[in-house]
Automatic annotation (TrEMBL), chains A, B:
One of its GO terms (molecular function) is DNA binding. Pfam families: HTH_IclR (PF09339), ROK (PF00480). It comes from Kribbella capetownensis. It comes from the Bacteria. Belongs to the ROK (NagC/XylR) family. This is ROK family transcriptional regulator. Residues 22-46 form the HTH cro/C1-type domain. One of its GO terms (biological process) is regulation of DNA-templated transcription. SUPFAM superfamilies: Actin-like ATPase domain (SSF53067), Winged helix' DNA-binding domain (SSF46785).
Length: 377, 377
């Protein structure tokens, strides 16, 4: 934690008080001191104390009293989502997507560029830098306004932001993305595997929002998984949880071949789904064979964790109408209890939103101990 | 929670204070009030208050001042592990094992009876009752001295103590074990699947004591799994976590057949392991084939959760010397990172010890809100 500029210290108790006040304000409409004290359980004096401090730091703003107020008008406070900016980046095999959001995760600007899995590391990093620069400029934001950055990468990522292993983009193995991003933006940088962050996004504000235990399937040109256990992203001891796809018996390695076989020379997998939707029998058979293979690994995840929910995300989730029913039938075949299946509503943006969430978690973990980007103090 | 006799109420804060004092005393040698206040972070006045109350309830005892104390002698307090008794029962396909322990889980008496998977439900319940009665009598304990009971059963168990599904003992499906035990003992009764409780025992005081994420494999005539995630037993949404064995691709259903094939007509699987240990090539091949199948499901668990530890327990764990190395080689083959493998030291008692732990958790969860067995007040 040497990468956050330091500021004045708050006592631990005041940090916790400040955190509960900020949470109450972020989740609700503007609140008066009386309402804030009630929601946080703090004394009125402590609430006032915290509110004054947060106001001074620019994290909350004061509103005019509500119209029609009788007697002494009560001040109201509002969380200032625009006090800082967040950068979230998704580096996949086939695309780079960068987004700038406010402190509530509302997207202010985003840029997507297509990349080939076959380009080299240096060229990919240069495209990444361009994409970030373009995104910041489009949002009218300078790097020092970014409070925190979250980065999603294809492949396994270790705790220091290093790509340990990338099968889909071989030259990516060994890149230290955290170090690379620290040259672009001054705030803290966290890096995580893309499937894990897509799962985090669903748990944060997606279709898995109220679920404690979730298996998230990233269904696309590659298949991956992210796990939410007890409401939290499960990373595993070596940050390698959810990698069931590496096991041949799970069927994920061979699954896409059924789609490619149908395509012959074509390379837009969407065509198989379109044909299946139109009732083409060979396409329907190819999709079913694909699902039959995917379902073995998915069943292994379900039988292992017994989640309440399976979420389908990733590129193929746009074709969920031809995928979900066959998947449900296969899960019924293997699982003791088939969980509810839901389709992500994030389309291609889920991974980047998860990166934003990761960055926001970092903000929540650090800003209340007084360690804040300079622009925020 | 209608099954615990009620007593006087403590305020929530006092409950928490009492809990931290009890924990400090249970984990350490006898402590003075000054030492207790330091360890718990409570004020001296609160500590004294709690100690007085716990003394009155019989949960702690007061010791004579330490020998050689100068000046005003300081009273010392000790956790009274003998204030109550715990019953733990393991109901397997082939045996019933009951144990009575004190409040620290020290076994005072235990009884083991062999049962056949083929006997009917009524006869099995009668043998269970006999086993429990014998165990209590042998410990010189009457049922009303049992503060809490934990029951491990083969099969899936729901939250109300009902056996939802038992493949190995078909007549067992539908038995409500919690209701059955409430006729035997007055305190709270909790029932859980045997593999889950064996995992809990390892995490409590076995080889997984300091591990956050653990895959426990119950290797025996049947293969099962229990998962510790973030230091806690993972049950799943429908209490069906760890059931990867139901998936044919996991290999667990067919695995024991390699051992039976080698045995021909014999039924003591131990013979294969003995022969393998003696260098019999056909036995070694049979054991390797068994491990090869087990390892597919084990790898699925490891790849899913990325645990720091795999623990081998169950009946076959006594033959760990011929099992662990082949298993490690197979895990190396499939997993991205092979976790450390350890062998349970509990032998056939792990499941029952897990049942004791489950009962102790129930005691910790309830006794501090004043709801205690009559004998304890």
């Amino acid at each position: 934690m040497t990468d956050e500029p330091s500021g004045g210290d708050l006592s631990r108790l005041r940090q916790l008080n400040a955190l509960s006040v900020l949470r109450a304000l972020r989740d609700e409409r503007p609140l008066t001191l009386t309402e804030l004290a009630k929601r946080t359980g703090l004394s009125r004096a402590s609430t006032e104390d915290v509110a004054r401090e947060l106001l001074a730091r620019g994290w909350v703003s004061e509103l005019a009293p509500a119209v029609g107020t009788v007697g002494r008008p009560a001040r109201r406070y509002r969380f200032r989502a625009d006090a800082g900016r967040i950068l979230g980046v998704d580096i996949g095999g086939h695309k780079i997507l960068a987004m700038v959001t406010d402190l509530e995760g509302v997207v202010l600007n985003q840029t997507r560029v297509a990349v080939s899995p076959r380009i080299g590391r240096r060229e990919r990093l240069a495209m990444l830098d361009d994409c970030v620069t373009t995104t910041l400029a489009g949002a009218g934001v300078t790097p020092d306004q970014i409070w925190s950055t979250g980065v999603a990468s294809t492949g396994l990522v270790d705790g220091t932001g290093n790509v340990m292993l990338s099968d889909s983009v071989p030259e990516w193995t060994g890149v230290n993305l955290a170090a690379h991003f620290r040259r672009l933006v001054p705030g803290p940088v966290r890096v995580e595997n893309d499937c894990k962050l897509a799962a985090l996004a669903e748990s944060w504000r997606g279709v898995a929002r109220y679920a404690g235990n979730v298996v998230f399937l990233l269904a696309g040109l590659r298949t991956g998984a992210g796990l939410i256990i007890d409401g939290k992203l499960h990373r595993g001891f070596g940050n390698a949880a959810g990698e069931i796809g590496a096991l041949p018996a799970a069927g994920w390695l061979r699954a896409p071949q059924h789609l490619y076989d149908w395509l012959g020379g074509g390379d837009d997998v969407e065509d198989v789904f379109l044909a299946a939707r139109d009732g083409d029998r060979t396409a329907i058979r190819a999709v079913r064979a694909y699902i039959r293979d995917i379902a073995v690994g998915a069943s292994a995840l379900v039988l292992t964790l017994d989640p309440e929910l399976v979420v389908i995300g990733g590129g193929f989730s746009r074709s969920a109408d031809v995928l979900v029913e066959p998947l449900r039938r296969e899960l019924d075949r293997w699982c003791l209890r088939t969980p509810e299946i839901r389709v992500s509503g994030f389309g291609a943006e889920g991974v980047a939103l998860g990166a934003v969430r990761l960055a926001l978690e970092q903000v929540e973990a650090t800003r209340y101990d007084g360690k804040l980007p300079v622009s925020a103090i």
